[in-house]
Amino acid sequence: MRAYVIRRVLLVIPTLFILTILVFLLVRFIPGDVIDIIEGRMFYEGGAGTGDRIDREAVERMMGLDVPVYVQYGRWMGVLPTPDWMTGEPRFNGLLQGSLGDSLFGGLTVGQRIIASLPVTIQLGLIALVLGQLIALPVGIYSAIRQDTPADYAGRTIAVIGMATPNFWLGIMVMIFPAIWWGWAPPLQYISFTEDPLRNLGILIIPSVILGTALSAGMMRMTRTMMLEVLRQDYIRTARSKGLKDGVVIMRHAVKNALIPIVTLVGMQLPILVGGSVIMESIFNLPGLGGLLVSALTERDYPLVSGVNLVFASVVLLSNLLIDLLYPHIDPRVRYR
């Protein structure tokens, strides 16, 4: 077990290194750059035709964009020194030093902006994940137990509809139609949990339900399939022939043995959860990492985009590692060497 954990952790390191290259380079392929954004803001804020032109070379030098991309990557990683834009003194301030760099806007570091937005995304993701499992597991188990009954058909229909309905479309419909029909719209002014827990949950519950419903659809089908497979095994028939009650057979023997693929699916749903949080936070005006990423992409804030993407990728990798380590505790037959 220890050797397996060491191998997996060592495998995470080159994977993260490749991800740093991808997240750093891909954002730079987007048309336009941060200098164009600054010029556009100055133009419109100064009025049409009266906006001042800026010294592009000076701004690029100040932001560290006047050097080739590989030098910018080396500075971001912390293997090359970054000259201070005021004093010109070189300093190492990159990923290897525990820093994600400075945001190009707002006067804050990338780490500060991520820490400020992270609690919202964590809260949204946890609520959605819990709601998704609370919907999927009971419905999937009951559908398998009552195979080919009206309840089973209803559960399968709900799962298919959930998988076929895009969560961004559902979120937009929730924003539009209640406002048209009843004059009501979900609250868009975010209130932190520490400030008012009830109002905070009231703000997050709708996007969490939408996101959790999308997650529960695939989980529901997987739960039903695995339960049907387990219920046909010989040891289940043996347990029933001993006179054990159906509830004991299902909960103690069937459900536990059907959990391994389900736990795997939870790990596979994390990227969906991350992508869904970006969409839900944008639609419902939540100040989480998803909204921060969209704002950073709009502003071409390269360090912030790279930092947020790296955080998302790290969460997915570490979560998959933890799920793999859970297997031996769920099924004693699983052994890692």
Question: What would the keywords be for this entry?
Answer:
single chain, 337 residues, mainly alpha, 71% helix
Written account of the structure:
The chain has helices at residues 2-26, 34-45, 56-63, 69-77, 110-145, 150-164, 167-181, 197-231, 234-241, 246-257, 259-283, 289-299, 302-330; strands spanning 82-83, 90-91. With 337 residues, it is an all-alpha fold. Helix 5 runs parallel beside helix 13 (302-330) and helix 11 crosses helix 12. It starts with a helix and ends in a 7-residue tail after the last helix. The model has no long low-confidence stretch (mean pLDDT 80).
Number of strands: 2
Mean pLDDT: 80
- The fraction of residues assigned to DSSP E strands is under 5%
Please give the largest β-sheet.
2 strands, antiparallel
User: How far from one another are the termini?
Assistant: 5 Å
Query: Which regions are unreliable across 5 or more consecutive residues at pLDDT < 50?
Result: none
Q: Which strand order does the major sheet show?
A: 1-2
- Structural class designation: mainly alpha
Rg to the nearest angstrom? 25 Å
Helix content: over 70%
What is the H/E order? HHHHEEHHHHHHHHH
Number of helices: 13
Describe the secondary-structure layout.
Blueprint: H1 2-26, H2 34-45, H3 56-63, H4 69-77, E1 82-83, E2 90-91, H5 110-145, H6 150-164, H7 167-181, H8 197-231, H9 234-241, H10 246-257, H11 259-283, H12 289-299, H13 302-330
Antiparallel strand pairs: 1-2
